[in-house]
Known about the structure:
Layout: H1 4-23, H2 26-51, H3 59-77, H4 81-102, H5 108-128, H6 130-133, E1 139-140, E2 145-146, E3 149-150, H7 154-177, H8 179-189, H9 191-196, H10 201-224, E4 229-230, H11 237-250, H12 255-275, H13 279-293, H14 302-306, H15 315-323
Antiparallel strand pairs: 1-4, 2-3
Amino acid sequence: MTKPIDRILLAFLAAGLAALPFVGTGYVIYVANLLLVFVVLALGLHVVIGETGQFALSHAAFYGVGIYTAGLINNAWHPPFFLSIAAGGLLAAALGYVIGALSLRMRDIYLALSTFAFGEAMQWVFLNWQSVTNGSNGYRLSPASLFGYELVSDIRAYPFVALIAALLLWATVALSRSQFGSALRAVRESEVAAQAMGIDVNAVKRAAFTLSAAYAGIAGGMYTTFASFIHPESLGFQTTILILTMVVVGGIGSVRGAVAGALIFGLISELLRQALSFQEIIYGVILMGFMMFAPKGLFADRARAKRPAAGPAAAPARRQRRIA
């Protein structure tokens, strides 16, 4: 069941998004579009880390695949933008399935290293495949269009970006409440127990990697609807760490935590990038503060955190009650 506070927060968020085009300037709308892209990226990483417990560091690579795929298709054929976004999501999903299949036998740091290696390899491709990506010179994106209606400004793209983000948020909540979502969390808690319950752990992991990559690819396609330029340096490890921070600080395993982390840290990152030359230091101080004072994240599952321990650790307390 949705909590009343969640409904109130969602209503305020929806009202703010609806009012923004009437009160915001061009730059404010651009930041809003960017934050909505971060929300989709964080939701995708939430699926593989928060729901399934697989520590992956390749999200920026799938994001880049979505951007370049959608951008190349749009520049070449100018189809309705939802087709180029879908193509980016599908290609990213296919790569995510392959990476998931190759990483099935890896866990923890080994899984992180293997996905990190894939991310670095993809950035090398973005930087050096001159004939396709234009390499280190960056790639110019043509305005997206929908049946002749060109998205030539941030405010024109905003309703579509907001709609896609809302649909993927709804899909993530529905996934979390579904039987498949329960299977994802079972794998996260214990792969052995999940197998004993009849869950195909390998299939669940592959599906989680595929879905997560699809989200990132779609987010990349969303970016092409309002941006006019992409450089490979913006698709490196720093972007992956930023998205990971959004999910961890927001609260691992929490959909609202992923959304809140994306909005808060996406805004902080953009403000620091625009205003300060020493943003990395301030960003690090902010991260350390969260780790010290809110290690479970801003929106961690408090009910789960307060749940009494089971098994041997709880046995002494039960014995004391009997003695009393």
